[in-house]
Amino acid sequence: MSQTVDRALSILPLLAEGPADLGQVADRLGVHKSTALRLLRTLHEHGLVYRQSDQRYRLGARLFALAQEAMENLDIREIAHPHLVRLNENCGHTVHLAVYEENEVLYIDKVESRYPVRMYSRIGKPVAITVAAVAKLLLADLPVPERRALAERLDYPAYTPRSTPNAEAFLKELATVREQGWATDLGGHEESINCVAAPVRGADGRVVAAMSVSAPNVVVTAEELLTLLPLVRRTADAISGEYSGRTPVRDPA
């Protein structure tokens, strides 16, 4: 039975490459055409494959409906939380997870620093959108017209001398963030707080969340915090792998 299931499931990646006829399916599976036909008929009955008028088979609409339903029911916070905890255990600093919703970037999870100096961020609270590293990652992934329209209607508070001053500077930074795949906030919101962040991506490659590590200067310098960037990116990749259903990435030690 397990071999039958394995063969049936092996048909789906083949058809994801494009329509295939019975002979092609049988050749790929290494089975007789009668066996391939039996598997295809079962998948067809469940709506997972569809036989076209030219007798070739393609993926069925039911498969896409199931995938969409599964994606809608995924809880990124639940998936990410164990990874965030392990990252916190490794580095000791505050770890955040944020998402972009209705023109705001919100923290949806936080693991506190082990050090006495704590950050005042709270789950459910919007971040300083023009300076926060997580916000830069989330907004950098928006289509260019949407990104520009958002940048032009934002206010640009001068939290510190390092704060983003205007829309032009913000768009330039977002372009850099999009190209490099990570972001920082080095004293842009609070002069004494630095942050490095990496994106969490879905199966389609789009950024669905952003995670970060933050620490005050009295605990670690900005240069020392930046050395954690590879670890932060590996953690984000591990979350992305689990969220998108790819083979799980080995969690960073």
Automatic annotation (TrEMBL):
Recorded GO MF terms: DNA binding; DNA-binding transcription factor activity
Alphabetic keyword roster: Activator, DNA-binding, Glycerol metabolism, Transcription, Transcription regulation
Start and end residues of each HTH iclR-type domain: 2-61
Superkingdom per UniProt: Bacteria
Domain called IclR-ED: residue spans: 62-245
InterPro entries per record: GAF-like_dom_sf (IPR029016), HTH_MetabolicPath_Reg (IPR050707), Tscrpt_reg_IclR_C (IPR014757), Tscrpt_reg_IclR_N (IPR005471), WH-like_DNA-bd_sf (IPR036388), WH_DNA-bd_sf (IPR036390)
GO biological process, one term: negative regulation of DNA-templated transcription
General function of this protein: May be an activator protein for the gylABX operon.
Protein name: Glycerol operon regulatory protein
Organism classification: Bacteria, Bacillati, Actinomycetota, Actinomycetes, Kitasatosporales
